[in-house]
Please model this.
Amino acid sequence: MEKILVTFLGTGNAVPTEKRNHTAILISYKNENVLIDCGEGTQRQFRIAGRIPHKLTRILITHWHGDHILGLPGLFQTLALTEYSKSLGVYGPKNTRYFMGLIEKLTAHKIKLDIKEISSGKVFENSEIKIESLQMNHGTSTLAYSFIVKDKMRLDKRKIRKLKLPNSPLLKKLQEGKDVVVNGRKIRSKEVCYLEKGRKVTIILDTKINSQAIKIAKDSDLLICESTFSSSEEKLALEYKHLTAKQAAEIAKKSKSKKLVLTHISQRYENDIKRIENEAKSIFKNVSVVKDFEKIEV
Model:
């Protein structure tokens, strides 16, 4: 089974620290390399993490606050200098075309961009993956995203050998759920195929608690969620439209997610990370606070 690799290029919030850069998350699966947000200095974070920006296929913008997008000019210049030849898909909420226009004027880069303003619903889909979005509540147009690897029918090689089935187009038909006849014998798809369950990674960044967050996170294998405040600062979280660690855990629990990773960590908790983690664990057990350059496979 091909794994989804999640690389955390930045895990801080509005003010970076010595240990945490501004937000940027890279999701890699086969030929897809999808960057979610691009905080200042992200192109340098790529180098430190041993990842190659030249392989990027898409960028998903959650919202247009500076700590989530000020790395775009530098990243685009890096791609231009390395002769990036693909058309890079850039997806974001309302006003994405306007802001991207400003960046293009600023950098005068020479790479091809396919810019799409999106709302709730399907962002991208092919035969293997699907990306979905839902509106969040952060005082400006803001999106959360799910990266989904679809369920897939797989051939059981051991059973194929046992039945002495030839390597032919018949195997593809079986994989498509169709029954076939081989040497006068009917072979049912379910005899030689099994369902490989898909996987889902959901990214919820800046937002206050809302029902849409639970909806998009439903049945996630990995939920990556902002945790800007501790529960003792819940009034501040509400004022600035952010989540507390407990609220992130509530989203994980109610959405029946399997694992929760907390990110977008405020500098105020830099020396007290366990406080954030323990608050979340009081609601949802399988939780950790992520660090810059940490990698998780799903």
Summary: The radius of gyration is 21 Å. The CA atoms of residues 89 and 114 lie 5 Å apart. Residues 153-194 form one domain. The chain has two domains: 5-151+197-297, 153-194.
